[in-house]
Amino acid sequence: MNLIMKKSVLHLVTLCVAGGVGLSVQAAPTHLVDEKPVKITEVADGVILIDFGKVAYGNIRLTPASDVSGEVTLHFGEDFVNGRVNRKPKGTVRYNKATVTLSGGQPVVAAPPADVRNTELVSKRKYYHPPAILTPPEWGVVLPFRWLEIEGWKGELKAEQIVRQSAYASTWNDDAAAFESSDDMLNKIWDLCSYSIKATTFAGVYVDGDRERIPYEADAYLNQLSHYYTDDDKVMARDTINYMLLEGIGTWPTEWAPHLVFMVYADWMHTGDLGWMSGRYQALKSKLNRHRLGDDGLIYSSAEDMKRTDIVDWPKKERDGYVFTERNTVVNAFYLRSLVLMAEMARVIGFTDEAKQFEADYNASYTAFQKTFFDADKGLYRDGIGTDHISSHANLYPLAFGLVPEEHREKMADWLADRGMRCSVYAAQYLMEGLFENGAGTKALDLILADGDRSWKHMVKSGTTISWEAWDLKYKPNQDWNHAWGAAPANLLPRYVLGAEPLVPGWKTARISPNVGNLKSAEGKVPTRLGSILVEWKNEKSFRIKLQLPEGMDAQVDLPKVGKSNEVLLNGEPIEASVQGGRLRLKKTVVGSVVLEVK
Question: Structural domains in the chain?
Fold first, then answer.
């Protein structure tokens, strides 16, 4: 392992801002790790192909033999066609090359020329977003690649003569999390998505991919959720929040700002750190879009908002025909969810009056929301005022945010699931949450594993090793092949298949609620601030689950109801449980190591 960065709790990453003025912000520590090739092949005379097994952000360090000198050309690529690095990949799939001169026995770092999208030059271009996050200059240029071709190499190239200097979070722990099930494809999806989170920690804060390398609030929230379930680190999420919230470097979409409320709340739930949350509470008030609040309690959208900032989903073609109106369902759903979280945070901080005001605002806006958008006869939400169009998006967000009247939730979940994946990889996070939370877990797993090109199964079968920005190039021709917001199963599978979520801030009480779908078994490890939760369940003639909770944690457990009996055994002895929503909830929490069985 080659640590280029100084061993410190935090390092400073210099960020360029408009006008070329440097801004230094704290970022989670990252480092370069030496990774050897998994395969070296001579594909033509003097042409050597190196496969590193997976894509990572990095560059190459060559150490030629003492008798090897001269110029060589290196081709870096994410894509691979006809046995060679693809020199003309589609969209913004990465390819680049570099020429270096070898001088017998002297190590040399080889990297392509700097890319203006990821250097200070970007500040001179007209964008609606901040400039790229810069990596430490001592690294040299890093780019995402898996394959490397070397032209002009003389003689044999041995594995010890070439390493990829790959950038990852210094805190990353490969053993922090695990997932395995009876479905091999689901296991491959977990491997893809969990590695995607690791590979995209290279910048020290969450960035949206290689095309821009900037933090977007929605991207960062999805990344944060998955990072919590794949690694022990909580620093990177905090540094990303600080960059966007405290430095005031936000982006343009209407619904992206409330994601900062979601991010601070998620930090509190996973860490239990009330002081850290309190220090960001006041800044969150500006992220609610209340400057657009009308007298009726709803957020209004101007013609310009509808044209430029109300995003619903991205890319635009993923909006399921959504009809934009001056008061629309999606923007208001985000507003309502933000009010719920702000009220809860205000109350626990001790701002009782503010909590009451947030709750009163919520009640007034929720009443207007239901009256304006909900079609009671159909049990579904319209896209907005003045339209009868009903899209998946007008319903998936309210369902995920707990806004749907309880008697309509399961029917809406079934309606959404039966329509299929009519949304992007971003909105799929919320679609899946809504399905898993409302009795449609089997259908959610079916969508994750679906045939066709709109599922994570498709990503796996494509051969990619990092999740994509979109389901396929045909849905977003300029998409990145290294986008963490496409890795939602990294958090969905431990949360809903293993079933582990924090019920009380800091994981003092966990919720254990596994969805079995058509799986016969699942097991894994979930990292928490108190230690690892170990889960192992089997669903055959009966449902049996082993739980190992860390010290200081208890768990509220509800289990799938199998068969006709409602009998639950705890370590072989009957325990009282009640039927709730088709599941069996234990009336008492459990601690330590337990075995539960549903007969």
Answer: 11-169 (2.60.120.260), 288-448 (1.50.10.10), 505-598 (2.60.420.10)
